[in-house]
TrEMBL record:
Name of this chain's protein: 3-isopropylmalate dehydrogenase
Record has rRNA processing as a keyword: no
Metabolic or biological pathway, per its Swiss-Prot or TrEMBL entry: Amino-acid biosynthesis; L-leucine biosynthesis; L-leucine from 3-methyl-2-oxobutanoate: step 3/4
Cofactor list: Mg(2+); Mn(2+)
InterPro entries: IsoCit/isopropylmalate_DH_CS, IsoPropMal-DH-like_dom, Isopropylmalate_DH
Organism whose genome encodes this protein: Ramlibacter rhizophilus
Stored Pfam families: Iso_dh
Annotated PANTHER family: 3-ISOPROPYLMALATE DEHYDROGENASE
Gene Ontology molecular function: 3-isopropylmalate dehydrogenase activity; magnesium ion binding; NAD binding
Chain positions recorded as Mg(2+) binding sites: 223, 247, 251
Main location: cytoplasm
One cellular-component annotation, GO: cytosol
Amino-acid positions noted as binding NAD(+) in the UniProt annotation, renumbered to this chain: 281-293
């Protein structure tokens, strides 16, 4: 039986994960769900944001459903004990190198975007960000007295941008395979005109692309990609890029849809094991009030069924149930507008469950 590790975390994490678990149960599928504390919750119970027992559960599971971590009340802790270390630790220990960030604009929420409705209506793009390499992890890095440069003798800091061929190959394969399930198009985003790292990136993605003759590949510089995302976002389908460019572009793309509470994400490793979480954080400003939007987490559970649990029909059922509740006019506060019905976290989860159970 497939096993799901359920890690609610802190802040709004427990509230939104409870709704996703309710939705998973409503599908009446056979899997084993086991919960464990992570982030601030684990600091409270175990004195560490990622206890050994939680890590072990995550390693043994086929998939991890993660809420969010990072309540403000832990801000004063030393770095190693801060809740955010839990998510970084999970990525590292599980080798989660492929981050999927879909940006989907639901028909009923078109008005929530800052872009004109015609630019955004029907938007459905997928940004795939490499998550374990690039300038965020490259060595050497540090501070020193500048040995040369414009200001020799001045204090300076430096980081190393770095990608190896196998790291680029595996993320490229992921992107082409994802494109095969969509509209057969990949845009690889780089800065090969300036950076050697991204010249290698471009060369390797092009080579891997030859193994996927059915998928069209184009290349775009990151500065142009940032412009095109706000000018004509629907021109993209699958976008694949490195860690830093992906960090920035995926947040830009998320904002196009106007509602962080709607966007799921997945991070996968080479074994297809994945961690699924909403794109947003722990929202300490609204935690405990029962008003957080649970849909990003519910949609993350749908991604989990599709990518790690081999249940694409169940994923479709969740996604169409979400469409259904939006069409009914139900809205949490973050996506509420005139003429719609404001609901809380739990009511929204109940409505999704109702849509699933009445449709089957
Ligand atoms: P955030 O995403 O938590 O919140 C940004 C704004 O969006 C807030 O006004 C919040 O109320 C709202 N919001 C977020 N999710 C919502 C939802 N589901 N429904 C309704 N409104 C929602 O980002 P912020 O404020 O920058 O970070 C808060 C904490 O979360 C920080 O400690 C940060 O480190 C952590 N964080 C954790 C992440 C994770 O667990 N993977 C990812 C991003 C941030
Ligand atoms: Mg970011």
């Amino acid at each position: 039986m497939k096993k799901i590790a359920v890690l609610p975390g802190d802040g709004i994490g427990p509230e939104i994960v409870a709704e996703a678990v309710k939705v998973l149960n409503a599908l009446e599928l056979e899997f084993d769900m086991e919960a464990a504390p992570v982030g601030g919750a684990a600091y409270e119970s175990h004195g560490h944001p990622l206890p050994e027992s939680t890590l072990k559960l995550a390693q043994e599971a086929d998939a991890i459903l993660f809420g969010a971590v990072g309540d403000w009340k832990y801000d004063k802790l030393e770095r190693a004990l801060r809740p955010e270390q839990a998510i970084l630790g999970l990525r590292k220990h599980l080798g989660l190198f492929a981050n999927f960030r879909p940006a989907i604009c639901y028909e009923q929420l078109t008005h929530a975007s800052s872009l004109k409705p015609e630019l955004i209506a029907g938007l459905d793009i997928l940004i795939i960000r490499e998550l374990t390499g690039d300038i965020y992890f490259g060595q050497p890095r540090g501070r020193r007295t500048a040995p040369d440069g414009h200001f020799p003798g001045a204090e300076e800091a430096f980081d190393t941008m770095r990608y190896s061929r196998p790291e680029i190959e595996r993320i490229a394969h992921i992107a082409f395979q994802a494109a095969r399930k969509r509209s057969q198009r990949v845009t690889s985003v780089d800065k090969s005109n300036v950076l050697e790292t991204f010249q290698l990136w471009k060369d390797v993605v092009t080579e891997v692309g030859q193994q996927y003759p059915d998928v069209a590949l184009d290349h775009m510089y990151v500065d142009n990609a940032a412009m095109q995302l706000v000018r004509a976002p629907k021109k993209f389908d699958v976008v694949v890029t490195g860690n830093m460019f992906g960090d920035i572009l995926s947040d830009e793309a998320a904002m196009l849809t106007g509602s962080i509470g709607m966007l799921p994400s997945a991070s996968l490793n080479e074994r297809g094991q994945g961690l699924y979480e909403p794109s947003h954080g722990s929202a300490p400003d609204i935690a405990g009030q029962g008003i957080a939007n649970p849909l990003a987490t519910i949609l993350s559970a749908a991604m989990m069924l599709r990518f790690s649990l081999d249940q694409p029909q169940a994923a479709d059922r969740i996604e169409s149930a979400v469409q259904h509740v939006l069409a009914q006019g139900l809205r949490t506060a973050d996506i509420h507008s005139d003429g719609t019905t404001k609901v809380g976290t739990r009511e929204m989860g109940d409505a999704v469950v109702a849509a699933i159970t009445t449709k089957t």
